[in-house]
Amino acid sequence: MTSGLAGWVDTRLPIVTLMRKEFGTFPVPKNFNYFWNFGAISMLLMVVMISTGVVLAMDYMPNAAEAFGSVQHIMRDVNYGWLVRYLHQNGASMFFIATYIHTFRGIYYGSYKSPRELLWILGVVTLLIMMSTAFMGYVLPWGQMSYWGATVITNMFAAIPFVGDAVVTWLWGGFGVDSPTLSRFYSLHYLLPFVLVAVVLLHITAIHKVGSNNPLGIDVRSPQDTLPFHPYYTIKDCFGLCVYLALFAVLVFFAPDLFGDPTNFIPANPLQTPADIQPEWYFLPFYAILRAVPNKLGGVALMFGAMAILLALPWLDTSPVRSARFRPIYRPLFFVWLASIVLLGAVGAHKPEGIWVILGRIGTIYYFGHLLVVMPILGRFERPLPLPDSISRPVITRNALPRGASVAEIRP
Amino acid sequence: MNRFVVIAALAGLAFGATARAQEADTLTPPSQSWRFAGPLGTVDQAAAQRGFQVYADACSNCHGLKYLHYRDLSGIGFTAAQIKEIAARFMVPAGFDNQGNVVTRPATAASPFRPPFPNDEAARAMLNGALPPDLSLIVSSFPNGPNYIYALLTGYQDPPADVKLADGMNYNPYFPGHQIAMPPPLNEGDITYTDGTASTVAQNAHDVVTFLAWAAHPDMVQRKRIGFGVVLYFLGMAGVTFALKRRIWHGVH
C-alpha cells in the first residue's frame, strides 16, 4: 500500500500507517462549526512557544543581575531577537485566547460528558500546566511586575496551615524572591512545556479513542455522519490557522506591548513596590476571586478551587443532554456564567475598592454557584428540547435546526 | 454565536477602561501628535537627531542610555562617519594594561553609550540622594509614555502657596506626588540646534521624546515594514485556503 522509502520504513515502523489512521482516514463528525478549530490552533501555538522559547534561551541569562539586561540584549543586539521575543511574549496571550475558547466550547457543547471525562480532565491538566508555565515565564524578564507578581503569588503558599512559611522559603530558595527563585523558575519554565506536550499527546490519544463531540452533542450513528479528517478538516484547520495567525501577526508587528504592563519595562526593584500589582490578563479572573475573599487562606483556596472544580465538571453536570443548544434554561445561564468570568476579569484589573469589591463577590458567587448548584440541580429538572435523530439528518436542510425548533418541524 | 461577539466586546471595554484609570490627583498629560504613533507611524529622523542632541547636551549629564550602542544611531539616520565622530567624543574603559591599570580609549561605534556615573552610589552622592533612571526604556515604562514624558519635561511650575517643597525638590503637577528631584531639565536657549531649527522648550521636549521613543523600540520601523508583508501573506493564504475549503466541501451535505 505504501511503496518506496516510506513503505520500507512503514513495514518496520508503522508511522505512515499510524498517521494515515489517526490524521488521514480518521472519521470525524461532519457538522463541526468554527469553534472546533481552536484545538488545532492551540497545538500550533504550543509549537510556536516551544520553538521561540528554545531560541530565546540561547541568549537569556537566568540570574537577577543580568536577566533584565539580557532580554534587552535579545531585543536590540541579537539579529531578529525582537521578532522571536515578541512572538514568544504575544504567543502566550494568543495561546491562552485559543485555549480558553477551546475550553468554553467544550463546556457549551458538553464535550466533557461520558465517554469523554478523561479527555476533559487531561484538558484541564494541560490548562493547569500552561498556567504554571506562563506564570513562571512572566517572572523571567525580571521587571517590576515580574518581581512583584512572583512575590504576591508565591506568598499565597504561606496561607497553607503549619507548613506555609517553610513551603514559601523552599519555593524561593531563600528568604525572599531573588536570583535562586529566578533560576529555578527558569529551569521549570523550560521543563513544563515538554510535560505539556506529553499531556497533549494523551489528550489526542483519548479523543482518537472516544471520537469528537459535535455541535449537536449526539453520538455518531452511521458512517454518513462523519467525514475523513483529511482533507475535510485539514483544510478547514488550515483556513482557521491562517486567520488566527494573521491576527497574531497584527499583534506582534503592530501592537506588541498591547497585553504588556508598562511597569515591566522598569527593572525589578525589591525596595520599591509598584502602585498596583496586577497579573497578566489571562489570570485576572482568578486574581479577582483571590481578592474577593477577606481571608487569605480562603482566597487562596477559592482561587485554586476555581480551576480544580473544573476537573469535577463531568459529574457536576447531571443533564443527559450534551449540547447547550437543546437545553433552554441552561443555555442562557451558560452565558451568564461566561459574563461572570468576564466581570471577574474586569474586577481583577481594578484596585479592590468601592463597587469593585461588591462586583468581585457577586462574580465569585455566581462562578461557583453555577458549577456547584445550578449544574447539578438543573440537569435533573430541565426539560431538554427534542434531539435530532442523527447528525446527517438535520444537516440535510443546510442551515439545520433553528434554535429551539424541534426535529419534527423541519423534517421534509 | 452573536453573544460570543458581544461578550468579547464587553471584555475589551472592561480591560480598556482599566488602562485609563489614573492616579487621582495627578494631571492627565495632554496628547501631542507623534510621527511614530499608529500602524503607519515611522521615525521622524530629523526630529530624532535633534532629540539626540538634546539628550547629549542636557539629559546625558545625569541619565544613561545603557542598552544602546553608538552604532544604533544609524537607526535615526546618522552616517557611519558621524557615528564614529560622535563615539570618539567619549572616553571609555578598555581593559587593563600589563601593570593592571585601567586603560581608557575613545569609544567606537561598537561601544555601549557611556554612563554618566560609574555606579548608582556615585550618582546619589552627586545628586542629593536622587537616582536618575536610565532612559533606554523610559517612554515604555509609563502608560501613555510619550505624552507623559513630554508633559513632565514642559510642565514645571512654581509651587502653589499651600505646597511646601522638600529640600532640593521641584514642583511638577504631572509627577505622582507633584514633587520631583529633577530640576527643570530644558531651559529656553540652552540648546542651539545644528540644523537651524528654532530651539524652544516645547521643541526640545518634542524632539527628545521622539528620540527616546525610538531608543525604547529601535526595531519599530523594520517591525512595521515586515509586519505588512506578514499580515498580507496570512490574509492571502486565508483566502486561498478558504477557496480550497469551499471546493473540497462542495457536495457535502
Give me the Rg of chain A, rounded.
Answer: 24 Å
Question: How much of the polypeptide of chain B forms β-strand, as a percent range?
Answer: 5-15%
Q: N-to-C terminal Cα separation of chain B, in Å? A: 22 Å
Span between termini of chain A? 43 Å
Q: What is the 3D shape of chain A? A: globular
Give the total of domains of chain A: 2
Write the layout of secondary structure elements.
The complex is a heterodimer of chains A (412) and B (253).
Chain A: H1 4-12, H2 15-24, E1 27-29, H3 38-57, H4 67-76, H5 81-108, H6 117-139, H7 144-156, H8 164-172, H9 179-210, E2 226-228, H10 229-254, H11 284-292, H12 296-311, H13 313-316, H14 330-348, H15 355-381, H16 392-396, H17 407-410
Antiparallel strand pairs in A: 1-2
Helix pairs in contact in A: 3-5, 3-9, 3-10, 4-5, 5-6, 5-10, 6-7, 6-9, 6-12, 11-12, 11-14, 11-15, 14-15
Chain B: H1 2-20, H2 45-57, H3 80-87, E1 91-96, E2 102-106, H4 120-126, H5 145-154, E3 170-171, E4 179-180, H6 201-216, H7 220-249
Antiparallel strand pairs in B: 1-2, 3-4
Helix pairs in contact in B: 2-6, 5-6
Give a structural overview.
The complex is a heterodimer of chains A (412) and B (253). Chain A has two domains: 23-260 and 272-277, Cytochrome Bc1 Complex, Chain C (Up-down Bundle), CATH 1.20.810.10; 279-381, Orthogonal Bundle (Helix Hairpins), CATH 1.10.287.980. Helix content of chain A is 64%, strand content 1%. Chain A has 17 helices and two strands. Chain A has helices spanning 4-12, 15-24, 38-57, 67-76, 81-108, 117-139, 144-156, 164-172, 179-210, 229-254, 284-292, 296-311, 313-316, 330-348, 355-381, 392-396, 407-410; strands spanning 27-29, 226-228. The model of chain A is unreliable at 405-412 (pLDDT under 50). With 253 residues, chain B is mainly alpha-helical. Among the domains of chain B are: 35-68 and 113-216, Cytochrome c-like domain (Cytochrome Bc1 Complex, Chain D, domain 2, Orthogonal Bundle); 219-247. Chain B has helices at residues 2-20, 45-57, 80-87, 120-126, 145-154, 201-216, 220-249, and strands at 91-96, 102-106, 170-171, 179-180. Chain B starts with a helix and ends with a helix. The chains are: A mainly alpha (412), B mainly alpha (253). The interface between A and B is large, with 48 and 48 residues.
